[in-house]
Design brief:
Helix content is 29%, strand content 21%. With 544 residues, it is of the alpha+beta class. Among the domains are: 1-68 and 204-262, 3-Layer(aba) Sandwich (D-Maltodextrin-Binding Protein, domain 2); 296-513, Dipeptide-binding Protein, Domain 3 (Dipeptide-binding Protein, domain 3), CATH 3.10.105.10. The strands form six sheets. Strands 11, 12, 13, 16 and 17 form a five-stranded antiparallel sheet that branches.
């Protein structure tokens, strides 16, 4: 049951937030009056650090920035790269030169610094400035890595922007869809300098209105926005976006259940059993007022072995295979996640991403797992194999489930719970023999997942935390960069993933899912595997 204290806290915080929103919106003159039922309201319990796209590294920041800014290209809900400010592009035969032709009707949000018209058209030189800013060491943007494959870039004229790569990189267009690569206006950025974080001017479907940090953030409709729907109607449909900052998920869901916010993302332990059945369906008490949408999320949850460990159990491929086959992942998802999440019976590449193959991994085969354990004992002379899984408290229930299941096939499992920061440091420095981890895609290409197994990426200088090394894998990994045909590259990705599963440096647990709850008054929110919040096509109707 939900605690009364949480309800009271949330209620008074809500009243404060609603009053603040009313004050903010009433500041508009009569010609700018807002239509209350066209305000999309959501909560951000993790807070927002910056509205500068160069610092959009967390979902909270990315979701807000996505309403305010655009880049050359954008990703659709099926992970296909689509035009945005660039209406078309060409890639040279050697896959090194990208030439983008820009639209000539994209304008920045109005600001007095633009002069008499209070706005101006985006030019190729704006992208040149924005990319140089991203690489500026003084700015120290966490997104500078997105241009690590770039040799040069320049504006050829007002509508032609050209990028030269150091080497072929087929995933490059996907990188350009990240919010780091948004266009910003030089004159505004240089006027505000560090305060651009709270005075953002972009080209997006919504424009910045007011931000009272830790309390309320308001965006208003950008009436000059350049995109239209399939019927030729201008986007966005909403009049405004209002974001509150209730600090915990339980309070957030209470406000959603009461109809005070329109949308909740994710399934938190504090309310999952109240909202969902064990099989992952919405409970009857919510079906009349709430919609649930779910789909694959580019996140693989897994256990990782440190391949340079001197512990015989970790070194043994037999034992690693036994662990992969020795527990029921479907049962784990049903009881621990109310059916939300896809049991990882495929490889490391998650479902929803080209290259995923559900047939290359391990299913629950306890008899086979027991046979592998007996072979391990005969080969090593170890009669009682023992391992230790290191995890954080958030995933203790998963590790305890695995502990109980593996004991049935005669593996003694210890579970060591440590703080997240300690685990992060220890896994980067090879101090853990077996640990729980997750990998969320930085960009929507399977190369991002496979990079964890390139021998050139050994941690702490790269994401290869397992220190897995295989000559055939390294050859294929380098070969993939030169393949521009997407279907051929996907086939190679699957071969690489299959090799990883055969060598077993990891135990994939599950592929996560995006779960969204919306009020019945909301239409067109949609869902996508990178869990990006896209509001430009959202509609709301008045409550009945």
């Amino acid at each position: 049951m939900l605690k009364r204290t949480s309800y009271n806290y949330s209620f008074f915080h809500l009243i404060s937030s609603v009053l603040t929103l009313s004050i903010l919106l009433s500041c508009s003159n009569n010609a700018d009056t807002i239509k209350e039922h066209l305000v999309f309201r959501y909560n951000e319990h993790k807070n927002i650090g910056s509205l500068d796209p160069a610092f959009a590294k967390d979902n909270a920041d990315i979701w807000a920035v996505n309403q305010l800014f655009n880049g050359l290209v954008q990703m659709d809900e099926n992970l296909n790269v689509q035009p945005c400010i660039a209406k078309q592009w060409n890639i040279s035969d050697d896959a090194l030169t990208y030439s983008f032709t820009l639209r000539n009707d994209v304008k920045f949000h109005k600001h007095r610094l633009f002069g008499s018209d209070s706005t101006r058209t985006v030019k190729a030189s704006d992208f040149e400035y924005s990319f140089n800013r991203l690489l500026d060491k003084k700015l120290a943007s966490p997104g500078s890595w997105t241009l690590s494959k770039v040799d040069t870039f320049k504006s050829i004229n007002d509508t032609l922007f050209q990028i030269q790569l150091k080497q072929p990189f087929p995933a490059f267009l996907g990188l350009l869809t990240m919010k780091y690569c948004s266009v910003v206006p030089k004159e505004i950025v240089e006027h505000y300098t560090n305060d651009f974080r709270s005075h953002p001017i972009g080209t997006g479907p919504f424009k910045f209105k007011r931000w009272e940090e830790n309390l309320k953030l308001v965006f208003r409709k950008n009436t000059m926005y350049f995109e239209k729907d399939t019927d030729g109607r201008p986007l966005p449909y909403l009049e405004a976006v209002a974001i509150t900052f209730l600090p915990d998920k339980q309070s957030e869901f209470l406000q959603f259940a009461q109809g005070n916010i329109d949308f909740v993302s994710g399934l938190d332990a504090s309310y999952k059993d109240e909202v969902l059945t064990a099989s992952g369906s919405l409970r009857a008490s919510y079906t009349s007022s709430v919609n649930m949408i779910r789909g694959p999320y580019l996140n693989t949850e897994y256990l990782a072995f440190f391949m340079e460990s001197d512990i015989p159990e970790i070194q043994s491929q037999l034992l690693r295979q036994a662990i992969n086959s020795g527990f029921d992942k479907q049962k784990m998802m049903t009881y621990l996640r109310n059916g939300i999440g896809i049991p990882a019976h495929g490889g490391f590449i998650p479902k929803g991403l080209p290259g995923h193959d559900n047939s290359i991994g391990y299913t629950y085969q306890p008899e086979r797992a027991q046979e592998l354990i007996e072979l391990f004992k005969a080969e090593t002379g170890i009669s009682k194999p023992e391992i230790t899984i290191t995890t954080t408290s958030n995933y203790l229930s998963f590790c305890e489930y695995i502990q109980r299941e593996l004991q049935k096939i005669d593996i003694t499992v210890n579970v060591d719970v440590i703080p997240a920061a300690t685990l992060k440091d220890a896994k980067a420095n090879g101090k853990l023999d077996l640990f729980r981890a997750s990998w969320v895609a930085d960009y929507p290409d399977a190369e991002n997942y496979l990079s964890l197994y390139s021998s050139e990426n050994f941690a702490p200088n790269g994401p290869n935390y397992t220190h897995f090394k295989d000559a055939q894998f390294d050859t294929w990994y380098k070969e993939a960069f030169s393949i521009t045909d997407s279907k051929q590259r996907e086939l190679l990705y699957t071969k690489m993933d299959s090799l990883i599963m055969a060598k077993t440096p990891v135990v994939p647990l599950f592929y996560d899912e995006v779960v969204r709850f919306t009020r019945k008054e909301v239409f067109g929110l949609g869902i996508n595997p990178i869990n990006l919040l896209v509001l430009k096509r959202v509609k709301k109707i008045k409550k009945q």
